[in-house]
Amino acid sequence: MPNDESDAISAFGPDFPFAYDDWLAHPAGLGAVPAEKHGARVAIIGAGAAGLVAGYELMRLGLRPVLYESARLGGRLRSQRFEGTEGIVAELGGMRFPVSSRGFYHYVDLLGLETRPFPNPLTPAAGSTVIDLEGETLYARTLDDLPPLYREVAAAYHQALEDGAQFSALQAAMRARDAQRIKAIWDPIVQAWDERTFYDFVVSSQAFRKLSFRHREVFGQVGFGTGGWDSDFPNSMLEILRVNLGGFDDEQRYVVGGVEQVAQGIWRQAPEKLTYWPAGTTLAGLNAGATRGRAQAIAHNGKGGFAVMDQWGNRDDYEAVVVTCQSHLLTTSIDAEESLFDQKLWMALDRTRYMQAAKTFVMVDRPFWKDKDPDTGRDRMSMTLTDRITRGTYLFDNGDDRPGVICLSYSWMTDALKVLPLPAERRVELALSALSKIYPGLDIAGHIIGSPICVSWEADENFLGAFKGALPGHYRYNHRMYGHFMQADLPESQRGIFMAGDGVSWTPAWVEGAVQTALNAVWGVMTHLGGRSPDGNPGPGDLYPALKPVDLVD
Ligand code: ARG
């Protein structure tokens, strides 16, 4: 990992300031379960990042995780290879990973995978950036190359964060990992902003009130970090603040050859240290080489445990269950016995709002965009942010002598819905038509090789949406889901089933949320089976009473 200075910003808090990275790295390990529980079966629903991390760590504790997966191992860590190529991929799900995601990079490093800076707008990795709004096309390498309005917008958001959220003080506390100071600043912000939107935050700020509507509009299109966040304007401001505070939209990297290697790697990795199982044991091995199919039903088994039935009607007993799929699949795809969860939790699970996201990729013969325009000396094509249908266009250089990849379009919400019913070819045509207005005379199509690859996560019955985007008033729902791994006060009938995934985390749409909640579930399962963390390395549940997210009264 490129950035491991101890005072760098990391995903530490602000809601639950627990050091997941330190917990993972501690030589004493995460904990132990009593020997009579060794080999106990734990069902894990979903083999995405959360399911695999939970499975891997539970295996290391001497338990037997059994994974159920209805689609592809990796979940939204999905790298689709262009036909006929070696390692030329389209990243359909997670593609850019902020270095502040320490939990995630723990596994990237464990697997020895190579990462590189992601070609985001106005970053050195992109080389150049084109911003095209209302038909005006601007070319820039850094923010300073753009007209003053862009710097005014950036400065205004910066100021709004200071005024509205004590941004630098809070980030300083996060860097210092000062949990009490974080809570002192953050908890009142939760109270103040849960029910107010990102748009409200922007328009009601002194900094933006001084400026024109055009400034707000440009902010929506060009935003901060990776680009336009206007599709999040209706979301709860808390969600955006967490992104800014945790550095999620900054210093992002991609995994060379595809992030799915992280998923495949965890599946096949033989841990250096593990309890009970013989050296060389892997998740793949314990699962006889493959996951079970789709989990169709989850219920109590009448013996203090659970019965999980797969899509073929095979029923197996488990001592605990970890559910990692999008939560609304518990009411659409999986027959989950109602008594497994409290009605308040069902409310939270079903109210979870998932956003739409669509991507369209093509492979090209070579990274032709680096050719210089003879008249202007500029790159022939650039990372492009626009108000047109493509929204964000990203260029992936795999080397001068290898095919390049263009993500012609990455869009959210209404922009994603525009292409939802359309086949890949039509999406490519629409994108090329939009780009031809930005790059007149450039023949992108002439470079395309192979077949396009596209995704609309909302069209996939295994997801029904790309990622959670909390709406105003959703803090309590998030809190119920996130805190559910603390089960000491739950009725007996509701214990032993745990939830994990970015969708139950405070940072949806970021794999770090999947890793952190998976670790919560690991602690939960371990404790449920009578185990505990070592004294020198307390787990998330041990520190939860002291550090838990603030309660908002009902
Ligand atoms: N992490 C994803 C990305 O980098 C999604 C971010 C968007 N999240 C959101 N709530 N709109 O593109």
TrEMBL record:
Pathway: Plant hormone metabolism; auxin biosynthesis. Gene3D superfamilies: 1.10.405.40, 3.90.660.10, FAD/NAD(P)-binding domain. Residues 50-524 form the Amine oxidase domain. It is an enzyme of class 1 (oxidoreductase). InterPro entries: Amino_oxidase, FAD/NAD-bd_sf, Flavin_monoamine_oxidase. Residues 531-554 are annotated as: Disordered. It comes from the Bacteria. It catalyses: L-tryptophan + O2 = indole-3-acetamide + CO2 + H2O. It holds the Pfam family Amino_oxidase. Belongs to the tryptophan 2-monooxygenase family. This is Tryptophan 2-monooxygenase.
